[in-house]
Task: inverse folding
């Protein structure tokens, strides 16, 4: 599609902004429903299966396994616009791109994902990916996490989670558990002080798994700092400052390694748009939590990380959101039909060792919502780890992004 800055260059029945998990899954489902005139707007030529980056960071997977060519995932009959969105005008029903082009739509699906704010913690952007600092939240840095874990012999290892909603909220914890298990197997865990910094007042919001996680940290001797966050970092001096918000104090800690998770928020253009929830400091798109339809603009829907929903931002959540969104979008387009309701399902696969995992699945009310009712997934198990390592990636590539599951 040619670009014509400042002018409407094309119009689509459905415009999907974002070519990641949520965008591709939605496009595939719409095509399976025989919807035509669909475009996916997104600049990246690579598509990532991010849940496996935790295992990349623990030396159990290769980063190349998590990557596919975006062009091969665009469903047949869907146009791919390789530009980045920079603004949206829901009144005019247009999205402007980084080339200045205006793309029109009848219906809009926001699937942009979120923004990693590496500058949200002073010193983090300059330190991450080298020295003693890494993060599994980027394919660039995840391999460095394994280098740090493998080379650690003594000292203090700090694992942090920021304040606010983040994608895969279990990831900051599970790399701490995998690292501790590795160090224990090497016979050096008693020489390493492991500190887990969490912003909440408990390990996890669902009691069944919270109790299990408390047992895990006790097993490894991990020091948990609740209602706390890292507020600054001096990578060159190997020092991190941790704020205890409950006590109103700060402590500077020397570190041997740091796995840091950056603060996360909506892309700036989304946060500044009329689609953002004005009550949210993070700028996510305001939609009804059950229908995924925007509260002010009925021809706009959102799902995935960019949607302001009171549940964990995970790929598993998207798997349940996509069929609901597509069904409700079709009802809106046709003017009749039965609407579906999203119950807030999400899941956190907590890898607790190098070969064990427990699967936390829950809904908006934090009630357990197990996919395998006959299995006690509050216990860490080898078969659940195999599901994480091999089963879920296969389901993703061969089912979810094709609109089949």
Result:
């Amino acid at each position: 599609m040619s670009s014509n800055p400042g002018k409407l260059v094309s119009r689509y029945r459905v415009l999907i902004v974002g070519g990641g998990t949520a965008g591709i899954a939605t496009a595939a489902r719409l095509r399976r429903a025989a919807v035509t005139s669909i475009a996916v707007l997104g600049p990246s030529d690579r598509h990532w299966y991010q849940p496996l980056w935790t295992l990349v960071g623990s030396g159990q997977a290769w980063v190349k396994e998590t990557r596919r060519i975006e062009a091969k995932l665009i469903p047949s009959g869907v146009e791919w616009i390789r530009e980045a969105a920079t603004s949206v005008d829901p009144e005019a029903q247009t999205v402007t791109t980084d080339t200045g082009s205006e793309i029109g739509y009848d219906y809009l699906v926001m699937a942009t994902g979120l923004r990693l704010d590496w500058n949200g913690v002073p010193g983090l952007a300059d330190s991450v990916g080298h020295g003693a600092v890494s993060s599994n939240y980027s394919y660039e840095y995840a391999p460095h996490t394994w280098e740090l874990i493998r080379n650690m012999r003594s000292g203090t290892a700090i694992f942090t989670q920021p304040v606010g909603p983040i994608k895969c909220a279990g990831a900051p914890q599970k790399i701490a558990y995998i690292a501790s298990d590795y160090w224990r197997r090497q016979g050096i865990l008693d020489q390493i002080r492991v500190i887990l910094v969490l912003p909440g007042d408990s390990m996890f919001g669902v009691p069944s798994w919270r109790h299990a996680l408390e047992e895990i940290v006790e097993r490894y001797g991990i020091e948990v700092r609740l209602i706390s966050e890292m507020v600054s970092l001096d990578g060159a001096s190997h020092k991190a400052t941790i704020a205890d918000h409950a006590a109103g104090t700060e402590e500077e800690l020397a570190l041997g390694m740091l796995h840091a998770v950056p603060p996360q928020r909506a892309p700036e253009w989304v946060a500044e748009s009329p689609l953002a929830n004005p009550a949210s400091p993070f700028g996510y798109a305001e939609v009804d939590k059950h229908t995924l339809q925007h509260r002010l603009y009925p021809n706009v829907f959102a799902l995935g990380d960019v949607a302001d929903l009171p549940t964990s931002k995970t790929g598993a959540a998207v798997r349940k959101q996509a069929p609901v969104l597509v069904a409700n979008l079709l009802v809106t387009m046709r003017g009749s039909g039965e609407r579906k309701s999203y119950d807030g399902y999400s899941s956190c696969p907590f890898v607790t060792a190098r070969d064990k995992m427990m699967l936390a699945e829950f809904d908006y009310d934090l009630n357990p919502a197990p996919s395998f009712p006959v299995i006690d997934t509050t216990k860490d198990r080898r078969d659940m780890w195999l599901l994480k390592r091999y089963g879920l990636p296969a389901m993703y590539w061969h089912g979810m992004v094709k609109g089949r599951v």
